[in-house]
Amino acid sequence: MDAKQLLEQIKRQFTNLDPRDPSRWPVVPQSLLLIGIFSAIQVAAYFVEWQDQLQALDAGRQQEAKLKDEYVNKKRQAVNLDLYREQLRAIDNSFGALLRQLPSKSQMEALLVDINQAGIGRGLQFDLFRPAAQETVRDFYAELPITIKLNGRYHDIGAFAADIGQLSRIVTLNNISLNVGKDSTLVMDATARTFRYLDEDEIAAQRRAAKAGKAGR
């Protein structure tokens, strides 16, 4: 039997089919009907039951990947915990060293005396030494500008600037201008800035003011 005859035989099996009694159908129509029913069951099962299960499975896989990443990160942190602690101690020590260079409120007067004595010790004459009437308060420290005007020899003024940089407390010289004065001496106008750390009450007041400012906005 050639292919043409086989095709004609299959076509004849689809003629005169009784839709009320598929059990009497020939083999080919019955097989196709069974395949169609099975496919319909598969599609219906997917939309009714399997879709939710597949979505739950996918969500579980994503959660598994997330938990694995969290585990790896926590394990890495645990392995490096001693290193992190050492780094934190180093940061605390560095911050403490910088903080110790800032005087407290009660030590500010002594620092002003040190600045004045640094100039007198170099043979310089102060024409003006005027601390600002009010400090500028920052997050954890306060800044006090001091307007100074002094005169003397060039090398002595340079030595004074070096002495200021060597003080145990932080003092900076800003807005420096030099002019020739009487007897060929130099006159230096500058702003010396000193800093002190805030005590606990002042820091608490700063935080309250910051909260009040945010609440007002």
Blueprint of the fold:
Blueprint: H1 3-13, H2 27-79, H3 81-100, H4 108-121, E1 125-131, E2 136-137, E3 141-152, H5 154-166, E4 171-180, E5 186-197, H6 200-216
Antiparallel strand pairs: 1-3, 2-3, 3-5, 4-5
Helix pairs in contact: 2-3, 4-5
Largest sheet: 5 strands, antiparallel
Beginning-to-end CA distance, first to last residue: 94 Å
CATH topology label of the largest domain: Alpha-Beta Plaits
CATH architecture identity of the largest domain: 2-Layer Sandwich
Number of DSSP-assigned strands: 5
The CATH class of the largest domain, by name, is Alpha Beta
Q: Low-confidence spans: pLDDT under 50, at least 5 residues?
A: none
Annotated CATH homologous superfamily of the largest domain: Ribosomal protein S6/Translation elongation factor EF1B
Order of helices and strands: HHHHEEEHEEH
The domain tally reads: 2
* Average pLDDT figure: 77
Helical content stands at 55-70%
Based on CA atoms alone, the radius of gyration comes out at 44 Å
- In what range is the share of β-strand residues? 15-25%
From the helix content, strand content and strand pairing, which structural class follows? alpha+beta
Count of separate DSSP helical elements: 6
User: Looking at the structure, what is the overall shape?
Assistant: rod-shaped
